Sequence to fold (306 residues):
Amino acid sequence: MEKKTIVRDSRGRFKPKEVEIKPTREWGYFFGLVIGDGWIKKTKFHNYIIGVESTKKELIDIFVDCAKRLGLNPHVYSRVKRRRFPNGTVREDLMYRAIVNSKQIYELLRSCKLEDYHFKIPNLVYESKEAIVGFLEGYFDAEGCVVIRKNPSQSHILIASKHRDNLEQITMLFNVIGVKAHIEKRRENCWVLRIWDYKSKVNFYNQIKPRIKEKAEKLVKLFHYQPTSTHYKYPLEVYLKAFELRRKGLSYQKIEDILGIPHSKRSSSGVVCRWINRKKIPYSVRYAPPDIQSAVQGVIHYGGEG
Fold:
């Protein structure tokens, strides 16, 4: 389904320009940013405003760039905003704001941006997988992060929201692209969606391309991190070969010599002995795709509209 909207310029003047709203990756990203970090408003002068506000100038620049790609006319300004936090502290921050004017986009989002930070995902997003991926990218840039731990199995992808029902909708979208997510309560008025499963993290990495530089770099780091544990240093084929040689009756030390694995300096049992005693291959090794190191190189650049 395609919709057309007549947009206004940065001063609110009408321009005879039609823009098609359709279920593409770029429109999905635009809606994801607005749902995550944006707002909509109808003024008494019949201006229909869609905007994003943040202390991060990079996010505003990305919103402006996205709006221009879609043929909209964004306007940017800044102001000092005084904010009071739940713990009682008060802080003044320089807030950046970018807006566009469009009645059709406002009407499309009016039933989606609800009171007290509740939201619904726009129906347009469900019309194509590309729009779903774009929406997840935009929402992740607005509300998500990558958590890196020393233990790779504890590193995960996280998205936060005030309400559980918001994250349940996001979880359904992740299911479409093969990503399993779990929702839990962090504290009062704060729910988090976490992606722990290694195969799901790989699927997320292969499909979701954050445009916030720090988040894109941390997503790469999620797979580049080199742990100290020898359980994670070798590809799947080495584990399988070690089990095969052990079934043939070879000693642990002999297996290490054949596979080129350094002997353990801490104990006489050896690295392969500890593998065998585990009786199963580490989870992250079992599900690591063989081309992850080569695929990881191009994640930071923007791949364009799908």
Q: What stands out?
A: DSSP finds twelve helices and ten strands in the chain. The radius of gyration is 24 Å. The chain has two domains: 3-225, 236-287. The CA atoms of residues 133 and 207 lie 7 Å apart.
